């Protein structure tokens, strides 16, 4: 059973991204698809990026913990909001913090917005950054328009049948990539 990290990338006080991250955590556990580790960037409260972890002389325990949790994960799901067509500085901060930890890591992306487009504009800039650090981005995407109208604060979907149908297609692709990655690593 794979171990899956879920990053809730928004650090805003009231954010809808965590709703989607909680939905996936609940869905993965209910379907017994793997174990999960929710990495809420709001809870971490990282300082602004100063240096990549591998070059830090005295990294904080918090930074080392985050890096270890990403390293341990077989795959990472990034749930990110779209802010003005891009992703938040909090996400860029943790992507730049690590390097080897992202190498060939299967990463799935769920985009979140308050509006009708589901954060689809953020994908281009995020894909470019993830490709540059040699992450393996899963081709399936999970855009969530009007997140506040589709998931409650605990991550419960207001239309469970539709959300779970979409989540199955998305997680099936992510889990396939994780399995393929494991098989390639052992050959």
Automatic annotation (TrEMBL):
InterPro entries cross-referenced by the UniProt entry: Flavoprotein-like_sf (IPR029039), FMN_Rdtase-like_dom (IPR005025), NAD(P)H-dep_reductase (IPR050712)
Record-level GO cellular component terms: cytosol
Domain NADPH-dependent FMN reductase-like intervals: 4-147
GO molecular function annotation: FMN binding; oxidoreductase activity
Family matches, as PANTHER family: CHROMATE REDUCTASE, NAD(P)H-DEPENDENT FMN REDUCTASE LOT6
Protein name per its UniProtKB record: NAD(P)H-dependent oxidoreductase
Source organism of this protein record: Adhaeribacter rhizoryzae
